[in-house]
Amino acid sequence: RYCAEPSSSQGIEGTERFDSPGKGRGLRALRHFAVGELVFACPAYSYVLTVNERGAHCEHCFTRKEDLSKCGKCKQAFYCNVDCQRGDWPMHKMECVAMCAYGENWCPSETVRLVARMIQKQKSTAERTPSERLLLLKEFESHLDKMDSEKDEMNQADIAALHHFYSKHLHDLPGEQALIELFAQVNCNGFTIEDEELSHLGSAVFPDVALMNHSCSPNVIVTYKGTVAEVRAVKEISPGEEVFNSYIDLLYPTEDRKERLLDSYFFTCECTECTSKSKDKAKMAIKKLSTRPEPEEIQSMVCYAKNVIEEFRRAKHYKNILFMCELSLEKMGTIFTDTNVYMLHMMYQSMGVCLYMQDWDGAMNYGEKIVHPYSVHYPAYSLNVASMYLKLGRLYLGLEKKSQGVKALKKALAIMEVAHGNDHFYVAEVKREIQEQK
């Protein structure tokens, strides 16, 4: 099904695949990369636009624009023009027929939709693709031997949904074992594509990007230009140095990050940040009280925070979430300072709810409390910090606080020029927003 292994000439210029001590395969630099420099770009092997963004983004190229044209058959997929519609047809056609057949009962998860597209692509593509210059899709780790019963059940539910929604429209589905492996590979190696405010746009598979190992102190950042992943240096990278990406949100303290990495990616991180724990004290800031809380009390509050975070994932109504946030902020505020990462998590959730409910002043108040601690806790050139300045800047402008708005947008821009590159349309958009205030 695939060509022979790549010769070095088929790789990505300036980098090479190598055996990273204790980490398996990885990517290392063959030359110097400056901060903000593009290390490499990788088109998606396969991708899918999230259902919530239908009509706002082109299904094929993910361009955000008004007046998109809809598919004449299913009337649910939207495109920039005929070229985009034609380009997407090899992938959309199996969904189009199924969507028409199921009507309102069409509801496979994003992962199921992505895997269906991958199967379709594998059928029509025998050669190595431009997304697999260093790592083939079939080389993805699945970690099946490490999966617990809960993950196993989720996998089985996804396989059942794939059969239910696609078996009539996608002929010769792989066997049970091959599907178990494919879903496990996607869960470990898939990416979520996000916009400049970190809103979810879709899911994709980028094999060459998946080659990079994780560090909680990464030297590159991954951003997206449509359906292409771009990897840029956020630190100076010297020849011979390994290229590290971050797989997770870096806001949380070491133990949380280790827990998350072990649960989702099945390894224990031993990076410099995890061994030094240099930011943990600031991240877990405790109020100066007349009697310092006992370690057990602090631990109990951390457990409470984690449980509330878990409840958020299950909460259906925004008003419920806001009530839960305010309640938990009050309770945790008896021990934690406002700069504690668990307090920040609750404020971030609250801000999201305020934005959804169009309570602009409420959202601005939360954003103002979040943005500076974020700048301290996250690494330099963090997308989380940039998106917070961006949201805040746009809120200020909407509330006619012009000078504060421009100031916040400029701070977002300084990070985005490094993370997204000067020629990115998100960067051009923010520049235009600043220019319009002059």
Please tell me about this protein's structure.
By secondary structure, the protein is of the alpha+beta class. It has 15 helices and 12 strands. The protein has helices at residues 82-102, 110-124, 149-166, 176-189, 207-210, 254-265, 272-276, 280-283, 295-314, 318-332, 341-356, 360-377, 383-398, 402-419, 425-435, and strands at residues 15-20, 24-29, 38-43, 46-49, 69-70, 78-79, 191-194, 200-205, 213-214, 220-225, 228-233, 244-245. α11 packs antiparallel against α12. Mean pLDDT is 93; it is low at 1-9.
Whole-number tally of structural domains: 2
Please give the count of helices: 15
Which superfamily, in CATH terms, is the homologous superfamily of the largest domain?
A: SET domain
Query: What's the mean pLDDT score?
Result: 93
Q: What is the fold named in CATH at topology level of the largest domain?
A: Beta-clip-like
Largest sheet: 3 strands, antiparallel
Radius of gyration: 23 Å
| Count of strand segments | 12
CATH architecture assignment name of the largest domain: Beta Complex
Q: Can you tell me the overall shape? A: globular
Q: What topology, given as strand order, has the largest sheet?
A: 3-11-10
Range of strand content = 5-15%
| Succession of helices and strands | EEEEEEHHHHEEHEEEEHHHHHHHHHH
CATH class of the largest domain: Mainly Beta
Subcellular location: Cytoplasm, Cytosol; Nucleus
Catalytic activity: L-lysyl-[protein] + S-adenosyl-L-methionine = N(6)-methyl-L-lysyl-[protein] + S-adenosyl-L-homocysteine + H(+); L-lysyl(4)-[histone H3] + 3 S-adenosyl-L-methionine = N(6),N(6),N(6)-trimethyl-L-lysyl(4)-[histone H3] + 3 S-adenosyl-L-homocysteine + 3 H(+)
GO cellular component, one term: nucleus
InterPro entries: H3K4_H4K5_MeTrfase, SET_dom, SET_dom_sf, TPR-like_helical_dom_sf, Znf_MYND
